[in-house]
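Here is an idea for our session: we take a single protein and study its fold together. Which protein we use is up to you, so please pick one and set it down. Once you have written the record down, we can walk along the chain together:
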Amino acid sequence: MLVYLRLIRESFSFAITALNNNRLRTFLSLLGVTVGIFSIIAVLAAVDSLDRSIRENLEGIDTNTIYIMNISFGPTDVPKWKRDNFDPISYDDYNFVRKNMSDIEASAYSIFGLRETVRYQAETLGSVNIAAVTHGIYNIERLKLGQGRFYTELESEKGAPVVVIGYRLAENLFGNAEPLGKEIRIFGRKLRVIGVLEKYGDAIGDSPDDTVYLPVNFVRGIRNTGKTGYPTAIVIKPKANVDIDAFEGILTQKFRIHRGVKAGDINDFFLSKLSGFVNLIDSIITSMNVIGWMLSGFSLLVGGFGIANIMFVSVKERTNIIGIQKSLGAKNKFILFQFLFEAIILALLGGLVGLALVWLITVASSFAMDDFKFVLSFTNIIIGVGISSLIGLVSGVIPALSASRLDPVEAIRTGM
């Protein structure tokens, strides 16, 4: 064990000497490893951070949540001309579902795509996301209130002029003033603030911090939801431990009968589960990782050739020393390991510089973006170190083999 520790120490010493004696050459050779490790780990860190942010945003929502819409979440075999003729999901459809389907924990009817100007006295906020939705959304999305309350089912049914607003909206509209009980204007109408959500932070799409929640029946008389109007949806959260496939089958059959779809005809609606959206996100993240690996692989290939070049030059420069070591009894494996360790150490130096650059960027980005945290995980650090070591091992094996096979007499004579 002591012999190998000494070997590692001497290899590290030789590597540092190579860096000092040939700084420009070493810098250019290690640049490929540095750029490659930086690219791979930066992509992995960015994708991990994005994945973490998405999952935090979806943390309170059951992935079995079902959306009934006349448009599809993703690709579909239904031709566009048929989809364009599908009737929008109506409030009557929503009432049918909640009255005729069992095993529903919560359901909601929503108009989405609304963006309006919100005013309070002299303060005006443009293009604010408006979530016109029934009371059930409170349980489906597990909304967290910082102040006040959410509107009741009765207020939802009557279309009462009340709103619940996001944390950032409350700050921008009211500053340090108490928001509860204040009246704001949306659609040119007055609505009373009855609740303020907790701070959520930035999210994919519109954050709850920048969203206004108000009863859907308040909006139905103001904005068109027909074929040429805003899209609508029924959101259903099944009870826990329900057989989701059986539930979906029953829901489809009952909704077909309700909508008058004839036997043999295709559905004039789409049932989409949130789990399908999560799977889509997972596939996108996987694709991003693969693309990152592919692009970074070229830099690693260049870096590997650079390390091999350094090692071949190092073998040539130390031929005399190798001959002396072997004449004094050094075994071939000692010479082999010496150069292998040196190659790995050189590659690690390049990799560590790449990791350091990624860490600096994550720190700077997290500081600049308060609501989105870039994270360099321990797993990604291990991946970076492992790839660097592997590049060093692969790049150094041929030069190390050539050094270990040198004839001691010829090596000493060549070096003289």
User: Anything to note?
Assistant: The CA atoms of residues 317 and 415 lie 8 Å apart. The chain has a mean pLDDT of 82. The longest helix spans residues 274-317. The beta strands are 66-69, 104-120, 123-133, 145-148, 162-165, 183-186, 189-197, 211-214, 232-238, 270-273.
